[in-house]
Every structure is written in structure tokens, then in C-alpha cells.
């Protein structure tokens, strides 16, 4: 249960730096594989996506993640030795094991710190944020790197059956440094972070390429379904759309009630970038006019758990989010998982 006194009693978590990295290759709707047999204009009409960034062959998720972390460290003016914990999150890890956390740690040349790996899909950033918040408030660590990274394009199908999924997803990474004290030109004070899940929706959006019930788990030819259904991601679009709208609306309402805030007290709604129609519906139900809803889905598509921090980093860098602003982040993803966070931007000196 939310305890307002805890904000005064315990060390406060602050985001003191953010950075994002997108692969240089832009893939417009017209550039998508012709074998998808889908009209480019219809993609934008249904999803709001005009283009996305796809990584070239040979690029690892950890490559993008490490680059984003380096950017956040540079922005913070940090010695890399100041980072005492790393939380990495992805649904497109370099390999089955290990997670990308230790790989990114090695690429950054940071030694002897713990590395967590999360896989909560599109809610990854908020799940990582709540863990960082707890570790900061308990004084376990004082400077935590959160990195969310995805290279999803390498596992997208190019046949007509893949048309409902392949155009949605892009690649990219973002990193945020969460610290016990504010620093830099401006810092984001975390006022609220709440997460949740409901496994009843697990079969509505999934990727079953690895099935540990089989020996070996990667022998798709032994499974009782057509290989392609398991090799590539599956989504029940209508069910996910309905669940996402309800989950995001309910999560935001609970957050605002706990903080005793109204929609008018929030300057910016920053929703997960899965589908522009979902976000328009959520904003309309909650009462956020379009001018207060941040978006980059048209240019980068759905970057899963990296979507929120990429959009946050871009909005801060562009000056759209500034001192005095309250920003509400909300996400919903496979699992089903969801979460909400509220930040207040302050001059840090």
C-alpha cells in the first residue's frame, strides 16, 4: 500500500540521466518484405506506424544496450565506477543463457556489481524501476543503471501469416540512471511506481520457440503444431487490444487515486507505444487531450520494454518534458503484465 510518509522517511529515487540508441537502418512500411502481402497505407491507418528501426545482421541486443548505458553515463558525467548495480530487461536476449545484464556489464568494463535480468515484456521498464526504487530506499545501492534493449527484427517472419505482427516491432535501447540523490541540470523524482500481472492472458501474446518440455527444447519438428506457429510470435490482436485498454486505464486510475491527483494535475501521459489506437482510446477514457500525450510510434514502432524509456529520453532531450512537469508512464504487455509510474521533474542544480 502506498505510504506518503515513506517519501520523506526513506532515500528518494531519482532518474538523473537518460539516453537511447536506435539502429541507423530505417524501414518504412513500403520497405517491408513484399511477401507479407500487406498494403503500406493500411499499416499506418491501423497502428499509427509509418516506419521502424531494424538492426543489421550481426548486431546483438547487448550491443544496443551497452551503447545506451554509455550515453547515460556520459550525460551524467559519471565515472563508470559510480554504478553499483545494473538491471537489464529484454525479451530478445543475445542467447538462451546468460542474460544480457552481465554481457552489458562486461562491455561497459564495470566489475564486481550485481546484474539483474528481467523479462516482463512491454512492462520491463516499470518492473525494473520498482526494483530500483526498493533498492535505493533500502540503501542497498545508491546508483543503479536500468537498461531496456530489444533486437526483435531478427525473429520476425516474412510470410503472409506474419502480417499482423511483423510490421509492429522495431529495435532499440534506452538506459536510465536511478540514484539516491538528484544531480545534473534536472532530475526526475519518482512519486509512484506500481506493477501487476495476470497469467490468464499468457496465451494471448507469446513466442514459443523454446519449449523446455521437449528434449531437446529447440526441436520444433517434434511439437504437435505447425512449426511456423511456434517459431514466430503469436498474438490474438482483438483480445490483447481490449485487455491493454482496460489494464492501462485501471492502472492509471488506481495510481491517481493513491496519490490524490486528478488528470489535470498530470502534464504528460507517456504510454507504451504498442498501437496508436490503443493509446488514443486510453487517453480519451481517462480525459487526456491529445496535446498532452507523448508519442513516437510513427517513427520507431513498438520497441517492447524499451519503448517507454526511449520515448522518455527523447522527450527530455527535446525539451518537451521540463522542470515542474509531472509525467505519468503506463504500460501493458504480454503475460499479461502492466505498470504505472509518476515522475516530477525538478531542477537538480
Spatial order of strands in the largest sheet = 5-4-6-7-1-8-13-12-11
How much of the residues is beta strand, in percent? 15-25%
Radius of gyration: 20 Å
What's the number of structural domains?
A: 2
Count of runs of 4 or more consecutive helical residues: 10
Bin the helical content.
25-40%
Short précis:
With 349 residues, the protein is of the alpha+beta class.
Question: Could you describe the 3D structure shown?
Answer:
The chain is an alpha+beta fold. It has two domains: 4-183, Thiolase/Chalcone synthase (Peroxisomal Thiolase, Chain A, domain 1, 3-Layer(aba) Sandwich), CATH 3.40.47; 189-347, Thiolase/Chalcone synthase (Peroxisomal Thiolase, Chain A, domain 1), CATH 3.40.47. The protein has ten helices and 13 strands. The strands form three sheets. The chain has a nine-stranded mixed β-sheet with strand order 5-4-6-7-1-8-13-12-11, sandwiched between helices. A two-stranded antiparallel sheet has the order 2-3. It has a two-stranded antiparallel ribbon with strand order 9-10. Strand 12 and strand 13 form a beta hairpin. The protein starts with a helix and ends with a strand.
Amino acid at each position: 500500500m502506498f505510504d506518503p510518509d515513506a517519501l520523506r522517511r526513506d532515500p528518494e529515487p531519482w532518474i538523473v540521466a537518460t539516453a537511447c540508441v536506435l539502429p541507423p537502418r530505417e524501414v518504412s512500411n513500403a520497405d517491408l518484405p513484399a511477401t507479407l502481402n500487406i498494403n503500406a497505407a493500411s499499416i499506418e491507418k491501423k497502428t499509427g506506424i509509418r516506419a521502424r528501426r531494424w538492426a543489421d545482421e550481426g548486431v546483438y541486443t547487448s550491443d544496443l544496450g551497452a551503447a545506451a548505458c554509455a550515453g547515460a553515463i556520459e550525460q551524467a558525467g559519471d565515472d563508470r565506477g559510480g554504478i553499483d548495480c545494473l538491471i537489464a530487461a529484454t525479451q530478445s536476449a543475445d542467447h538462451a543463457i546468460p542474460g544480457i545484464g552481465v554481457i552489458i556489464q562486461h562491455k561497459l568494463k564495470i566489475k564486481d556489481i550485481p546484474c539483474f535480468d528481467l523479462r516482463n515484456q512491454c512492462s520491463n521498464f516499470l518492473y525494473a524501476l520498482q526494483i530500483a526504487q526498493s533498492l535505493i530506499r533500502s540503501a542497498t545501492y545508491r546508483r543503479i543503471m536500468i537498461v531496456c534493449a530489444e533486437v526483435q527484427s531478427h525473429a520476425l517472419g516474412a510470410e503472409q501469416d506474419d502480417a499482423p505482427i511483423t510490421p509492429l516491432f522495431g529495435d532499440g535501447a534506452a538506459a536510465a540512471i536511478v540514484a539516491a540523490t538528484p544531480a545534473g541540470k534536472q532530475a526526475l523524482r519518482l512519486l509512484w511506481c506500481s506493477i501487476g500481472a495476470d497469467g490468464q492472458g499468457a496465451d494471448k501474446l507469446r513466442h514459443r520457440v523454446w519449449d523446455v518440455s521437449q528434449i531437446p527444447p529447440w526441436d520444433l519438428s517434434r511439437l504437435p503444431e505447425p512449426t511456423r506457429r511456434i517459431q514466430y510470435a503469436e498474438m490474438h490482436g482483438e483480445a490483447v487490444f481490449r485487455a491493454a485498454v482496460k489494464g492501462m486505464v485501471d492502472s492509471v486510475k488506481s495510481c491517481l487515486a493513491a496519490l490524490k491527483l486528478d488528470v489535470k494535475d498530470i502534464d504528460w501521459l507517456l504510454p507504451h507505444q504498442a498501437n496508436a489506437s490503443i493509446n488514443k482510446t486510453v487517453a480519451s477514457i481517462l480525459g487526456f487531450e491529445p496535446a498532452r500525450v507523448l508519442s513516437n510510434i510513427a517513427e520507431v514502432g513498438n520497441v517492447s520494454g524499451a519503448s517507454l524509456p526511449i520515448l522518455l529520453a527523447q522527450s527530455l532531450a527535446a525539451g518537451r518534458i521540463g522542470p515542474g512537469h509531472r509525467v505519468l508512464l503506463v504500460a501493458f504487455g504480454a503475460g499479461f503484465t502492466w505498470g504505472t509510474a509518476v515522475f516530477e521533474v525538478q531542477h537538480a542544480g
